Amino acid sequence: MTTGKRIVLQTGIFLMFFSLLSIGAFADNGGSPVSAVLFGLVGALIVGLITATVLISMSRTKTKSTQANHYVSSEVTLSDKSDKFLRKDTHMISNK
Amino acid sequence: MSKNITYKCPTCGGDLAWNASTGSFKCKYCEDEFTNAQLEALGENNIEEEKAEKHRELEGDKSQYRSTDGTENSDLVAYTCSHCGAEIITNRTTAATICVYCQNPVVMSEQVIGDFSPKYVIPFKVDKSKVMDAFKSFAKKPLTPKDFDPNNVVEKMQGVYVPFWLYSADASGMLSGEGTTQRRYRNGNNEYSETSYYSFLRRGSVTVDQVPVDASKKIENDAMDSIEPYDYREITEFSPSYLAGFLAERYDLNADECYERAELRIKNTLEEELKRTTDYESVTVKSFDADVKVKSKDYALLPAWLLYTKYQDKNYLFAMNGQTGKFIGNLPIDKIKLTVFTALGAVGGFLAGIAGYFMFM
């Protein structure tokens, strides 16, 4: 198993354990435990993964180059350009 | 008589080597310094092709030989050090080395003439004494294991002139796709999000100059990609004297074999540049066609410091741009530290999630 997969698995087990403890704590206090813990779990997953990704990327700086941006010697010259309106979607996002 | 090239001090006859910190050639003995122009005026840089020493093939079972100069390869050949007469066993593509017996810088003349003659070189600017300090500060990362001590893990540190092909090209192409813009607005008590969709087409061209692609099979492509960019303002016409005191490789991948990597980078760059001419907030590419016309492909030697390290029986290669000092490499990761930091982040995220729930719900 690779380091990355192992860390994700360990984080998952840790989160399950932590969420079970939290559900118990909220249930005792008469809150709305399941929704709150779900919010917490989402937060934990996002922040945990971001933390791991940022830290690993600090240690791994060898990457394949797929761009040559440093070597562009002139601005892009356009010979043809067109933009055509297709459609518009509108959604209501709040009604306060 | 055929010979390899060594550079002698015009003052005392001692060996000259390139001094990265002063940008001149320095005598190991009398410490006098000379510019490349001064050496050229003295005729030191002329190589007579018919006098260039050819390598000798090793006899018998080649697996019994080991390189004497620390180069890594199984395809070894022999030269004779023109200073002390010792046999230098090195890999077939070595263009310059240091004799392990007399520490004399030796340039293999047959590797820098004819088809193998580079057009350009960027001389080393980062001195060897600064490489370890840079490695120590580079290794200070949150996940680096405590026992990864830069003073103990480095097995070999080499200043190497790496062969590169530099491609200059005009790229033209056509990009089409769908773009979106978004706006929010309020109508009475209601807030709306409006997304507008457009189809777009762009035809255009860009010019790229000297896109580098390393031309050595032995050196990791990713490592060489990662130490870019080099500052071409300091690129100069090749002279073999710049190699004195360093290892140098000649190319073993020709310009056609390396072109695919250059072409991919040039096409990707054209696509990015064409995308940038749209003002959309998001772009989905439907089709992209590009044509690259190569104007020139030049052979150049660019400087890099390579650090071969071993930690817990695993090999790690670190590289430093020998001109700009940019350091790269994949450090070992302490799994316990990673677990602890990730768990701390997860706890923080969990508490923030619960706090957010009670604040906003």
Key phrases:
heterodimer, A: 96 residues, alpha+beta, flat, B: 361 residues, 3 domains, 10-stranded mixed β-sheet, 3-stranded antiparallel β-sheet, 6 helices
Describe the structure.
The complex is a heterodimer of chains A (96) and B (361). Chain A has 96 residues and is α+β, with helices and mostly antiparallel strands. Chain A has a domain at 3-60. Chain A has helices at 3-29, 33-59; one strand at residues 77-94. In chain A, helix 1 packs antiparallel against helix 2. Chain A is flat and about 65 Å long. The N and C termini of chain A lie far apart (50 Å). The mean pLDDT of chain A is 79. Chain B has 361 residues and is α+β, with helices and mostly antiparallel strands. Chain B folds into three domains: 16-117, no CATH class; 128-225 and 250-330, no CATH class; 335-361. Chain B has helices spanning 36-41, 128-139, 150-153, 221-226, 255-276, 335-360, and strands at 16-19, 24-27, 33-34, 56-57, 76-80, 87-91, 94-98, 105-107, 120-121, 154-187, 190-214, 236-237, 247-249, 282-311, 314-321, 327-329. In chain B, the strands form three sheets. In chain B, strands 7, 8, 9, 10, 11, 12, 13, 14, 15 and 16 form a ten-stranded mixed beta sheet that branches. In chain B, strand 10 and strand 11 (190-214) form a beta hairpin. The radius of gyration of chain B is 27 Å and the shape is globular. The termini of chain B are far apart. The chains are: A alpha+beta (96), B alpha+beta (361). The interface between A and B is large, with 67 and 80 residues.
